[in-house]
Design goal:
Elements: H1 3-26, H2 34-40, H3 42-49, H4 68-85, H5 87-107
Helix pairs in contact: 1-4, 1-5, 4-5
């Protein structure tokens, strides 16, 4: 394999992780998707307050924002498909995600 293949793989992976990070930021309190974030985190937040019987977190909530690691997998799969078939859309999402990641390092 040529070096460019590895560079492309790293770029798609970094773009996917950056976009997942942006999505996770948007789910936080006070952000644009905070109502969705509150809904996805409902059982987790209630379990933090309870001492005895814990609520089961529905499995379907995990890949859509309930778990950042699960969400990252599916966003990276989506980014890979966009990279292969819809490069212009991929570039837009990659720029949004990567700029958010860079901004976090600049603001600190």
């Amino acid at each position: 394999m040529e070096l460019i293949v590895f560079v492309n793989i790293l770029f798609v992976a970094f773009s996917g992780a950056s976009l997942a990070n942006l999505y996770d930021d948007c789910l936080q309190d006070g952000m644009i998707f905070n109502k969705l974030g509150a809904f996805l985190q409902l059982e987790i937040r209630l379990n933090q307050k309870r001492k005895v019987k814990k609520l089961k977190v529905p499995f379907w909530k995990m890949p859509i924002g309930g778990c950042i690691i699960c969400t990252n997998v599916w966003i990276t799969v989506l980014m890979s498909i966009l990279y292969l078939f819809f490069s212009t859309v991929f570039i837009v999402f990659a720029v949004l995600g990567i700029s958010n990641t860079f901004l976090k390092f600049i603001v600190k």
